[in-house]
Amino acid sequence: MSEHVPIPDRPRISVVTNDDGTGSVTVDGSMRTVKARDAAGAREAVLALVVEVAQQHGRPVRVAASGSDGVSALLVAPDGSVEEGVEADDLGVTAPPPAAPPVTTPPVTTPPATAAPATTTSIPVMPTTAVPTAAPTAAPTAAVPSEPATAPPAPAAASDESSFTRRDARLLTARDFAESAQTPTRILATEGVRGGFNKIGFRLAPGKKEQAKRDRRETIQRAFTGRKTIAVIGEKGGVGKTTTTYLLGATLGRVRGGSVLAWDNNEYKGTLGIRSMPAPSHDRTAIDLLRHVHDGPGQLSSADLIDFVRGQRDNKFDVLASQNLDGDSDVIDEEAFGLLHDTLSASYRVIIVDTGNNSKAGTWQSAVAAADVLVLTTIVKEDSARTLASMADTLVAHGHEAKLRNAVTVMSHPSPTSHPDLEQRLTRHMGELTRQVVAVPFDVSLDRGDVIDYDALTDASREAWMEVTAAVAAGLR
């Protein structure tokens, strides 16, 4: 398919394929529907109709292919080959494309050899200007008498002393061999309309939506140095701190892997133990671990910690709960936090700290001081939003402005009811203070407050928590 000949914007062609095997082709406003067994059959049917149009025009045509992931831009040639075209917005889906520059090459009167003869079809064909497929043959140039060519002198034979040998050359190295490898083949689309076309033999790159999902996974999986601490903070109950802590751990565990711990550092009685899967062999908590550290012989190993943390199975991370609801132990103070943090950091690469609601508590302040990234949580309600804004002021007053600017704000919807004005105000305010604001949709599977089941989340919810996790990972240096 030529990349040098401009493709006119007429006819305007759009195709739609659905998962149930139905589809349609619209050419300059006239629609024709198709029906097949499945989505793949629908794609083949609409493609065949578009190829007919391309054959009638004797050139490639622009196509806007619509599906659940948006609109993809394609160029379909008379021989049935498909390439990626310009962005969908330039195909007339939202605005007409710029006019093609004028063709200065003299027109060819002979029709293109590859064009199929026009046939009668129910798809209308708009008259178009003939597009040259080959440059006209240049007229022969008259012979001009000239002097006989003289052969250049032969180079002098090299002497034995100056002859080129392997000893004189730079020897190839292992780096040369590694760099001689072929460039990896680009990753093709697997989702949506583009992924569907690829299943029947095309090679289309991912669309914007799919590429964004891949970029988030790559950000979560990227390497960072040392051991990292993420503190999830708020000054009000019910703003999603525990949910955020758990789903950060689950997403990191499933996408990144490695040693990840979610630690309920509530100064009194937290709820992370309630929202997580229980340990089959024990119900020990952070208070029990603190006692063991005080009374133990020395540094605990990862094997020792198994008796205090709770594995989360397919989520591939561990939970350290705060004291049980029937416990009456003293609260964990600043010194206790430091001792536990040092102990846990020896065994875990990433620690996610779920805090309490009291920003004046020593353990809350210690978590903020130890954090590499802060995660500020709120729900889309006026009282929670004002409390969040006040907490941001508190962080600045205590000298944490730099951490606030590197922080991520998680804005959760507590019900299906939306408050767009409040959400806009909150996004604008926290967007000025923190590095990124991520909105999380309401998910009925989280509404009960029971053990969090990652597999029960909606697709939209899982993708939102992927975005949250990628935003947090981007701040880990």
Automatic annotation (TrEMBL):
<feature type="compositionally biased region" description="Low complexity">
    <location>
        <begin position="111"/>
        <end position="120"/>
    </location>
</feature>
<dbReference type="InterPro" id="IPR027417">
    <property type="entry name" value="P-loop_NTPase"/>
</dbReference>
<feature type="compositionally biased region" description="Pro residues">
    <location>
        <begin position="95"/>
        <end position="110"/>
    </location>
</feature>
<feature type="region of interest" description="Disordered">
    <location>
        <begin position="1"/>
        <end position="28"/>
    </location>
</feature>
<feature type="compositionally biased region" description="Low complexity">
    <location>
        <begin position="133"/>
        <end position="149"/>
    </location>
</feature>
<protein>
    <submittedName>
        <fullName>AAA family ATPase</fullName>
    </submittedName>
</protein>
<feature type="compositionally biased region" description="Basic and acidic residues">
    <location>
        <begin position="1"/>
        <end position="12"/>
    </location>
</feature>
<feature type="compositionally biased region" description="Polar residues">
    <location>
        <begin position="15"/>
        <end position="27"/>
    </location>
</feature>
<feature type="region of interest" description="Disordered">
    <location>
        <begin position="92"/>
        <end position="120"/>
    </location>
</feature>
<dbReference type="InterPro" id="IPR050625">
    <property type="entry name" value="ParA/MinD_ATPase"/>
</dbReference>
<feature type="region of interest" description="Disordered">
    <location>
        <begin position="133"/>
        <end position="164"/>
    </location>
</feature>
